[in-house]
Design goal:
single chain, 271 residues, alpha/beta, Rossmann fold
Length: 271
């Protein structure tokens, strides 16, 4: 019977999107240490090459596959390139995405569409392109990086939160549909992780933020995050929160919703 309980990751083909920096980069190093064969995807080819060199994996064990999730109509072409290299896909880690910060009424529809195209449609399109391969294998695992903002909204992050809420709705449903095919779905909700996500986020008009967040500066190291994700994958989890004290906001919101929103409004003033 197919199971990921105590699974041995050695020689598994693991495809990581958003692999050029942040969480994705940290995952590349962690899975390389597990002895995996890696497919590294992001827009910046030169950064993918840098990450590949840092993994110290042999050329035959790594495929650099630059992709733009906004151009997700090409997903089947991307999948074919992976199959040509490795012949299979054992784990897909949908980690690529884009953050946003801006007043909801000031955020242009172009920015709204761009965020959703990358964070939701690009994510889903790649998953749908990979699933037929996993069905043939009668084995596979789909890991999705969501966010604690997939569980509640915050002022000035409406579009980003919406994209992460959408991922929960899709993958919680998909998980049940894939069970007969022995394909597992793991949703991973990070809290504050030490990355450049805030710097690279979009303002309401589509310009780059270029401003870091104190919460992310003091966030969890990506190497720690990666170890926790791999542990969840090996133990057959369906969902995990990974972060520090900010994770307490999820049960707090569920137990005391009115107080939660009053506090969030107060904390957001002046931002």
């Amino acid at each position: 019977m197919y199971s990921f309980v105590n699974m041995d990751l050695k020689n598994k083909v693991v495809w990581i999107t958003g692999a050029s920096s942040g969480i994705g980069e940290g995952l590349c190093y962690a899975f390389a240490k597990e002895g995996c064969k890696l497919v590294l995807s992001a827009r910046r080819a030169e950064e993918l090459l840098r990450v590949k060199q840092q993994t110290q994996l042999k050329d035959e064990d790594v495929l650099l596959l630059p992709i733009d999730l906004e151009k997700n109509s090409e997903a089947l072409v991307w999948v074919q390139k992976v199959i040509e290299k490795f012949g299979r896909i054992d784990v897909l880690i949908n980690n690529g995405g884009l953050s946003q910060k801006g007043n909801a009424m000031d955020t242009t529809l172009e920015v709204e569409r761009k965020i959703m195209e990358i964070n939701y449609f690009g994510n889903v399109a790649l998953t749908k392109a990979v699933i037929p391969i996993m069905k043939k294998q009668q084995a596979g695992n789909i890991v999705v990086t969501t966010s604690i903002l997939g569980k509640f909204g915050l002022p000035f992050h409406s579009t980003y939160a919406a994209s992460k809420h959408a991922l929960y709705g899709f993958y919680d449903s998909l998980r049940m549909e894939l069970k007969p095919h022995h394909i597992k779905v793991l949703l991973v909700a990070p809290g504050f992780i030490k990355t450049n996500a805030s710097i690279n986020s979009l303002n309401a008009d589509g310009s780059l933020s270029n401003e870091n967040s104190p919460a992310q500066i003091n966030g969890m190291e990506t190497s720690v995050f990666a170890r926790k994700l791999i542990s969840a994958l090996k133990s057959n989890r369906t969902h995990i929160y990974i972060g520090k004290k900010e994770l307490l906001s999820v049960p707090f919101k569920m137990l005391f919703p009115n107080l939660f929103y009053q506090l969030m409004i107060k904390l957001s003033k002046g931002k």
